[in-house]
């Protein structure tokens, strides 16, 4: 017996800085409706789906950035999305900027900001929350950059780990669900933590600039796409999971984000890919039983993993130079 879930990647085209929540939510509602018409049971939206990719804009006072954050979910602005989720009976991955009042590591309750995603059940309840761990970019205005990437300014490092939950996704089908956000997809450690919890569907959204500003040399556009796909395909194969990886794409206020959203199977094959850099839906039937092959053979973790040889992975952050060998004569 197969366990098929129909998954939609709901890619969003650009959101300009001046565009309000209402317009964006309207576009998302249209994608949700089309996803429902095409039989989708799970719909994945991008990272920070409700606004422009605001970490490109510098605010000296962090509170000035609050308009880009959601202090609650649902909020008056996002309520229509939750209503549509219930109406269409679909499960949704939503990336957004989260503003939370909660205790920090010292136990002091303060305003905290995270780059967050949630899985919303067809009844509107939050099934799972994830806060982005691998924040790229920088915290201070960088003079040498034409475009800022201020994720380290606006967000704290996620403090929820990489959770996986088993939840109903289709009639008679439960799935092990996990999440990543954008830059996380480049880190095999993140995928493996999900794999160790038998994840079957990784949902991830991204906002990836077409140009690598950290590389003062040249990195061809096609390599940016290759690196995105390579990371996702390897993550799926090595952890025997499906993934839906969804872009916010196109040109936002003159700054280009790549598209190329994909759905990938546990063999690492791309089974659907977006062709535009605009609002676009791609849909694939994912038989979750296909995760069994990798999980029980090459990547049978219980049989083949050697954690005693991996201590560096958790004890060391940066790389160190290796011991030097010199010829004896
Ligand atoms: N949003 C996000 O995480 N973007 C990063 C840009 C990194 S620049 C190499 C990404 O990994 O796509």
Automatic annotation (TrEMBL):
Molecular function GO labels: N-carbamoyl-D-amino acid hydrolase activity
Assigned EC number: 3.5.1.77
InterPro entries: Aliph_Amidase/BUP, C-N_Hydrolase, C-N_Hydrolase_sf
Highest taxon listed in the record's lineage: Bacteria
Residue ranges occupied by any CN hydrolase domain in the UniProt entry: 5-288
Family annotation (Pfam families): CN_hydrolase
Entry annotated with the keyword Hydrolase: yes
Enzyme class: hydrolase
Protein name, as recorded: N-carbamoyl-D-amino acid hydrolase
Organism: Achromobacter kerstersii
């Amino acid at each position: 017996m197969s366990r098929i879930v129909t998954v939609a990647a709901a890619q969003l085209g650009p959101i300009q800085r001046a565009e309000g929540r209402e317009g964006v939510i309207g576009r998302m509602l249209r994608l949700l409706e089309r996803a429902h018409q095409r039989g989708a049971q799970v719909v994945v939206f991008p990272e920070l789906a409700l606004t422009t990719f605001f970490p490109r804009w510098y605010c000296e006072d962090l509170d000035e950035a609050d308009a880009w954050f959601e202090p609650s979910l649902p909020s008056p602005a996002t309520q229509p999305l939750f209503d549509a989720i219930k109406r269409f009976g679909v499960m949704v991955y939503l990336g957004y900027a989260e503003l939370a009042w909660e205790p920090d590591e010292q136990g002091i309750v303060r305003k905290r900001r995270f780059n967050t995603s949630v899985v919303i059940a067809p009844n509107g309840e939050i099934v799972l929350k994830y806060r982005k761990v691998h924040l790229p970019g920088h915290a201070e205005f960088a003079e040498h950059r034409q475009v800022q990437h201020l994720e380290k300014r606006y967000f704290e490092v996620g403090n929820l780990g990489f959770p996986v939950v088993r939840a109903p996704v289709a009639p008679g089908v439960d799935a092990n669900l996990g999440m990543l956000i954008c830059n996380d997809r480049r880190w095999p450690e993140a995928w493996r933590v999900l794999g160790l919890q038998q994840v079957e569907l990784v949902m991830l959204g991204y906002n990836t600039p077409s140009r690598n500003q950290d590389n003062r040399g040249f990195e061809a556009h096609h390599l940016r796409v290759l690196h995105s796909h390579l990371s996702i395909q390897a993550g799926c194969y090595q952890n025997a999971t499906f993934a839906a990886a969804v872009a916010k794409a196109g040109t936002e206020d003159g700054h280009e984000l790549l598209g190329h959203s994909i759905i990938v199977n546990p063999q690492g094959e791309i089974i659907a890919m977006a062709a535009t850099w605009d609002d676009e839906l791609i849909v694939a039937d994912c038989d979750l039983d296909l995760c069994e092959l990798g999980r029980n053979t090459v990547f049978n973790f219980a049989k083949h993993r050697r954690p005693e040889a991996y201590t560096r992975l958790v004890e060391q952050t940066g790389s160190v130079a290796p011991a030097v060998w010199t010829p004896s004569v």
